[in-house]
Amino acid sequence: MLTAIVLIDCDAARIPEVAAETAEIEGVSEVYSVTGEVDLIALVRVREHDRLADVIADKVSKVEGVLRTQTYIAFRAYSKHDLEEAFALGLED
């Protein structure tokens, strides 16, 4: 599974609409409205490298109100949350 982190600059008046439409795109697992230099961050998860272009360049970038995207491809994930779930035996703490 390939994961890409997509930073999205968009028309400020359309942030909720851009987020909702982007979240509906197949391959987009999550969209966050954030503070800082960008308006939204989307997580894209696909099985094949070629699908990244289909999702990001052909769909996310073409959502009405998207002004610019910047994509980071993840090499490896480090997450305490994921490790805790992987080793959990189903018992509550």
Automatic annotation (TrEMBL):
<dbReference type="InterPro" id="IPR011008">
    <property type="entry name" value="Dimeric_a/b-barrel"/>
</dbReference>
<dbReference type="GO" id="GO:0005829">
    <property type="term" value="C:cytosol"/>
</dbReference>
<protein>
    <submittedName>
        <fullName>Transcriptional regulator, AsnC family</fullName>
    </submittedName>
</protein>
<dbReference type="GO" id="GO:0043565">
    <property type="term" value="F:sequence-specific DNA binding"/>
</dbReference>
<dbReference type="InterPro" id="IPR019887">
    <property type="entry name" value="Tscrpt_reg_AsnC/Lrp_C"/>
</dbReference>
<dbReference type="Pfam" id="PF01037">
    <property type="entry name" value="AsnC_trans_reg"/>
</dbReference>
<feature type="domain" description="Transcription regulator AsnC/Lrp ligand binding">
    <location>
        <begin position="6"/>
        <end position="76"/>
    </location>
</feature>
<dbReference type="GO" id="GO:0043200">
    <property type="term" value="P:response to amino acid"/>
</dbReference>
